[in-house]
Specification:
2 domains; Heme Oxygenase, Chain A; mainly alpha; three-stranded antiparallel sheet; about 60% helix; single chain; binds fe (ii) ion; 20 helices; Jelly Rolls
Length: about 375
Amino acid sequence: MLIAEGDQDRTLFILESGSVSLAQKTDNGEQKLGTIGAGDVVGEFAFIDERPRSATVTIGETAQLLKLDHAKVMRTLVDTPEALAELLQALANRVTLRLRSYMSEQSVQNELSKVSGISDAPAGKTGDAYLEELIDEALAHPAVSHPYLNDLAQGNLPDLKWALCDFATQYPGYCAHFPRYLTMVISKLDSPKHRMTLMQNLIEESGMLDDEEIEVLVEHGIDPDWVQGIPHPKLFERFQHAMGVHDTHEQADDVLEVVCWRESFYHLLSNGSPAEAVGAIGLGTENIVNKIYTPIIRAIERLGTLDREQYVFFELHCEVDDDHHEALLAIASDFADDRQNCIDLRKGMLKALGLRAMFWDWMYDRARHREPCA
Ligand SMILES: [Fe+2]
């Protein structure tokens, strides 16, 4: 056996010859998923996402594999952008193929059509003036000003603890896949400069911080030891465990609303134009992170049972990862001198915001109809 389902390990394998077979546990015992042939990659989900292995992989008799250690690969790739681009492209293709099998093209399209009743972009404008309008439009969107977020921050929910536990349970079904979203966007960009910028974000996602970022942390009273070398999905897990939420990986894949959000967002990144993908992950996501995580921090503080170290995930994203959105704005700005790209930036942004707002609607409904704890 090469990989056991559920294992935590990020090694990536390239199959040089022979074949390997994949199987997954189900309620009716083990189910065969198929085989992978020479030239293909094995283990890409865990490599990108830092999630437990999704399947058991058994090696055929003649198989020869090349083993790639995660930390070493990341370091090498930063120095060799061409190799990086190729690997990311291969990984992005693989991950897209696998995702397709979870959700039909039609159901993804249906989901996206709910958020695509989008009015025309302001005429005539391009460049940074246009971008500024988009930023304002994003910040005024229900994805940011949603009553769910306000009521969490104000404690206006029947059971704040239950609501935060529910958030801790459901949200990672989308956000734990962030490295995969970034990988997809990087693989779509032509400019090496743009790719390297986002690669830097991807490296930060895996917990590697540089001196400048550590300085910012210290300024905000965050102990660098709380975060250095720890991938972001792990930091979220720390928050989950502190809230008493355990073992959500499998659960999260059963909840349709969460799967819809994740897969529709991924579909938007993989099928849209590069400008649309940048609009979605930049203007519609990184750009608003700060505004979304601040009310979550307020709610956690209001609850008053967690140490700062336990919810450092949110502060980290508000204070340090703020430069992610600067980096993405710089990329968006390069796209914004072309009229069609301007329209696509906005389209991607509004779709990403629309998907998030639908998720908040659902979460709000759950949080409001929960009876208070005795
Ligand atoms: Fe992150």
